[in-house]
Amino acid sequence: MPISVAPSRQPLRSIACGAALLLCGWLGAAPTSRAQDAQAAGGAESVAPPVNSALDAPLFYQLLIGELELRGGQAGSAYEIILDAARRTRDEALFRRAVDIALAARAGDQALAASRAWRSARPQSLDALRVQLQIMVAMTRSAEIGEPLRALLAQTPAAERGATIASLPRFLQRAGEPRAIATLIEDTTRPYADAPGTRTPVLVAVGRAWLAAADPARALALAREAAALEPAAPGPALLAMELVRDRPEAESIVTAHLAQPQAEHALRLAWVRVLTGAQRYAAAIAQLEIATRAQPQDPQPFLTLGALHLELRHPEEADAALRRFVELAEKNPRAPAAAGAPDEDDEDDGPTPTDRALVQAWLMLAQAAEQRGDFAAAERWLARIDDPQRALDVLTRRASMLVRQGQLAQARELVRSAPERRPEDARAKLVAEVSLLREARRWQEAYELLGTAVQRFPDDGDLLYEQAMMAEKSNRIDDMERLLRRVMVLRPDNAHAYNALGYSLADRGQRLDEARKLIVRALELAPGDPFITDSLGWVEYRLGNREEALQLLRRAWDARPDPEIGAHLGEVLWSLGRKDAARRVWRDSRRRAAAHEVLREPLARLRVGQ
Question: What is the pTM for the complete model shown?
Answer without folding.
Answer: 0.78
